[in-house]
Amino acid sequence: MAGFGHTTRKHPRSRGRTGSRSGPDRATLGIIGLVSAIAGFSVLQIVLGPVAVVCGWLAMGRRWTGTQSVPALIAVVLGAIDTLLAIVWLASMSGSPVGGLF
Q1: ∠ CA(30), CA(51), CA(43), 5° rounding?
Q2: Are 80 and 46 spatial neighbours (Cβ–Cβ below 8 Å)?
Q3: Full-prediction pTM beyond 0.85?
């Protein structure tokens, strides 16, 4: 019978999905965020801007302190600019009688 402190396993269970992200995962998220931020300046700003912010934030490890990768930080900044430009554009288009949403 396996009780407290008496296990039948020789090695502890792996952390699996709950473990911390490794370098390549964060680097990939940073690059995806950077690409979507740059593409957001041309098309689909309202979609690609927040995607870039989220990918950059996750690539930074969901914190502002410590060492951050440059693509992740650029993705967050450019994604925020994309999102703000899209909101300003939508607000200006909704006020005009021609070319508005409705």
Answers
A1: 110
A2: no
A3: no
